[in-house]
Amino acid sequence: MNVLMAGVGGQGIILASDILAQVAMLAGHDVKKSEIHGMAQRGGSVMSHIRFSDKVYSPTIPKAQCDIMVSFEELETARYLEFLKKDSHVIINRYRLSPPSVAIGVEAYPDVEPMVKAKTPHVYFVDGDSAAKSLGNPRVVNAYLLGVLSTFLKVDDSVWIECFKTMLKESIREINIKAFKAGKDAKVK
Questions:
Q1: CA-closest candidate to residue 124, choices 155, 158, 88
Q2: Which pLDDT tens digit goes with each residue over 86-111?
Q3: With CB atoms 3.0 to 4.6 Å apart as the test, which of 35, 68, 89, 163 could cross-link to 48 if both were Cys?
Q4: Nearest Cα to 144, choosing from 123, 157, 129, 125?
Q5: Chain segment 29-58, per-residue pLDDT in tens
Q6: Integer angstrom CA distances of residue 86 from 68, 72, 94, 134
Q7: Domain spans of the chain?
Q8: Which superfamily is assigned to 2-184 in CATH?
Q9: Residues above pLDDT 90, as percent of the chain
Q10: φ and ψ at residue 75, rounded to 5 degrees
């Protein structure tokens, strides 16, 4: 299973990929993970590859081999289209961070949906930011998106919950578990 997570700095992509890697290990898989940080500050491009199976030899997903992409920001989806194959599943958070050319009015924010649908018909838009805000903490978008992702994977919820309990500080565990469950219940399929 090849899962690519993409977004911008500050969205919790690295933590989400760490949790997914731990979940896959606890489910009995060999796991390899790689991450690339753009700018080290909030707003720079961030990508993480998580690969798991009986045996995995490389931490990076070859082009056209991604099974599932989870994109935390719409435009970042377009940046990594080359990793998709014709039957990839793509979960896209409806969040837009305008690049400078859009912010100053030189260009319009591109319509990502037709770009992705040209690669695969399995595209699912979710509003993770609104869901997280409605739960009372806008920082749990990553847990919400993991909940959505979990509906595509055959791993018992108890494994996910255990990872949240062991990997997160006590003060943020319950809100993240609540966000995970909300994402799971979003029924995006």
A1: 88
A2: 999 999 999 998 777 777 887 888 99
A3: 35
A4: 129
A5: 999 999 987 664 667 889 999 999 999 999
A6: 11, 21, 22, 34
A7: 2-184
A8: Pyruvate-ferredoxin oxidoreductase, PFOR, domain III (3.40.920.10)
A9: 84
A10: -65, -30
